[in-house]
């Protein structure tokens, strides 16, 4: 058992929730950072930060997209005695042209990484590719259930990574000393086009799911017609842009390096997600 609880912000999310479960399985005391947690943690309510950080020496930061709150949070954590930070960042944070410089996630990740690296604390940065779970728990799930995934990704491929692997790397960095000062780029074992992705999901579920490639302009227009603010629709289109521009197809060795094993495949993810009922209506 660890003497001090490890704080997981975003502790009920796709990665944070899995990190909580994996730490619990190791017998580690965990504090779930969420608006429903006890003590309550809310990124946008700084009055909740101190109680969440009380007695904590290690923190896994799942940042608030679109908000530059990581820097003041890290500073406050240091003042309260935190010694180690593991940061969930994103692929392309240091790649010019990967995304718009003023895009929501880009601003958050670039500033957050700088804050962590210059904090004077022990740190590890985790940069995953697109989550496989975006199709089962995230913003692609409704499209899968509807049988049609419409995105401005062209014929580009992405090396989707399982959130179980992302969480496992974060847990290793929180509980082992060999990961301090390292940046891990995480991907799955192969790059898949969205056509190949929906075929794997169709095979696993028995559903008929197809991918429809749209131009960025048509994609934005469809979202705006559905009631999206134009700026949000453009940010969504921009987030998919790296796939279309073949900037997400490369494979990264972070899972193998950090864990000593290969990453989980998308086919395995789809099979297990289907068995767990992820795509039941």
TrEMBL record:
Pfam families: NmrA. GO terms for molecular function: NAD(P)H dehydrogenase (quinone) activity. Its EC number is 1.6.5.2. Keywords: Oxidoreductase. It is an enzyme of class 1 (oxidoreductase). The keyword Oxidoreductase applies. The keyword Nuclease does not apply. InterPro entries: Ergot_Alk_Oxidoreductase (IPR051604), NAD(P)-bd_dom_sf (IPR036291), NmrA-like (IPR008030). Residues 15-221 form the NmrA-like domain. This is SDR family oxidoreductase.
């Amino acid at each position: 058992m660890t003497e001090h609880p490890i704080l997981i912000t975003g502790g009920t999310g796709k990665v944070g929730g899995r990190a909580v479960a994996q730490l619990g399985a190791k017998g580690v005391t965990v504090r779930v950072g969420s608006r429903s947690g006890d003590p309550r943690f809310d990124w946008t309510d700084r009055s909740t930060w101190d109680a969440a950080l009380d007695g904590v020496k290690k923190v896994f930061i799942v940042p608030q997209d679109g908000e530059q709150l990581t820097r003041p949070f890290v500073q406050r954590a240091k003042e309260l005695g935190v010694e180690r930070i593991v940061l969930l960042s994103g692929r392309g944070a240091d790649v010019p042209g990967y995304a718009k410089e003023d895009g929501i996630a880009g601003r958050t990740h670039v500033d957050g990484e700088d804050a962590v690296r210059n904090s004077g604390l022990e740190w590890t940065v985790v940069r995953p590719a697109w989550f496989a779970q975006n199709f089962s728990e995230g913003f692609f799930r409704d499209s899968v259930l509807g049988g049609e995934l419409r995105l401005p990704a062209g014929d580009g491929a992405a090396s989707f990574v399982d959130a179980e692997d992302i969480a496992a790397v974060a847990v290793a960095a929180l509980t082992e000393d060999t990961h301090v000062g390292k940046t891990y780029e995480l991907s799955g074992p192969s790059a898949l086009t969205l056509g190949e992705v929906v075929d794997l999901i169709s095979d696993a579920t028995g559903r008929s799911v197809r991918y429809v490639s749209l131009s960025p302009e048509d994609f934005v227009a469809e979202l705006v017609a559905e009631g999206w603010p134009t700026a949000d629709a453009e940010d969504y289109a921009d987030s998919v842009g790296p796939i279309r521009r073949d900037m997400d197809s490369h494979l990264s060795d972070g899972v193998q390096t950090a864990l000593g094993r290969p990453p989980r495949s998308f086919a395995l993810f789809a099979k297990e997600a289907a068995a767990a009922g992820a795509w039941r209506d």
